[in-house]
Amino acid sequence: MIYIAPSLLAADFGNLEAAVKRITDAGANYLHLDVMDGAFVPNISFGAPVIAALRHRSKLIFDVHLMINDPVRYLDDFVKAGADIITIHLESCSDPGTVLREIRRREVRCGLAISPATPVEEIIPYLSQIDMALIMTVVPGFGGQKFMPDMLEKVRTVRRYANSQKLNLNIEVDGGLNAENTPSAVAAGANVIVAGSAIFGAKRPKSVIAAMQKA
Ligand code: DX5
Ligand code: ZN
Q1: Which of 53, 110, 179, 203 has its CA 20 to 30 A from that of 99?
Q2: 167 C-alpha vs ligand 1 centroid, how far in Å?
């Protein structure tokens, strides 16, 4: 099963409730929530209070992508806000293993992300401790960037390793995904597709999501 995770970053921030309803009606599986601190990445987006406010209005799986330094400081806030999955960046902390254990201890699913510059070998040792590997297909920080097809080699490597170890691992790709390039990501082994501009920018998000799910 392919899960489609529209990224709220591309929504109209003046009317988030309507935006979430729109993609829910269009068949979204997850809601991807990009948290940026202006330090780990150059941009600032939104934090736990916004997620908490949406939690009361949505039953989607809340997929929280933390692009913040030292994420362990804020885990309780995001769990309280209603995160179902918390993904941290390998590059954002000195001891990712400990942070992943802290996420699990709070009984939410945990993910680990790598940015384009990070070699895939660095995520391999953690795959047995996580529910989801996030392979970034753009440099994190902004929506609307161009998909980097070279990153699919990382997806293949992670999927091959997960299969060889019989790990039940979700592999998420994030950045520049659309209905045209989703089949290549799925063929490489990804099963969670994040898309911001391709879905929120569409006249009929339902057909975009349906096309992606068919990949
Ligand atoms: C980038 C974010 C992405 C982004 C995706 O830092 O992690 O989730 O919002 O947006 P699009 O699909 O427009 O590239
Ligand atoms: Zn993201």
Answers
A1: 53
A2: 27
Reported confidence tier of residue 173, pLDDT bands at 50, 70, 90: very high
- Which H or E element spans position 158? helix 152-164
In terms of C-beta density within 10 A (0-12 exposed, 13-18 middle, 19 or more buried), how is residue 128 classed? exposed
Q: Under a CB-based contact definition with an 8 Å cutoff, are residues 170 and 132 in contact? A: yes
Which residues are within 8 A (CB) of 149 and not within 5 positions of it... i.e. 6 or more apart?
137, 181, 184
Prediction pTM value: 0.98
Q: Is the CB of 135 under 6 A from ligand 1?
A: no
pLDDT at 179: 98
Q: Is 131 a catalytic residue?
A: no
Catalytic residue selected from 34, 37, 63, 131: 34
- Tally of structural domains, the chain: 1
Dihedral pair phi/psi, residue 130, rounded to 5°: -125, 160
- Say whether 84 is catalytic: no
What is the model's pLDDT at position 130? Answer: 98
For residue 15, count other CB atoms closer than 10 A to its CB. Answer: 11
Q: Give the CATH number of the domain where residue 186 resides.
A: 3.20.20.70
**pLDDT attached to residue 13:** 98
Name the residue range of residue 190's domain. 3-213
Instruction: Confirm or reject: Cβ of 43 under 6 Å from ligand 1.
Output: no
* pLDDT tens-digit map of 52-72: 999 999 999 999 999 999 999
SS3 196: coil
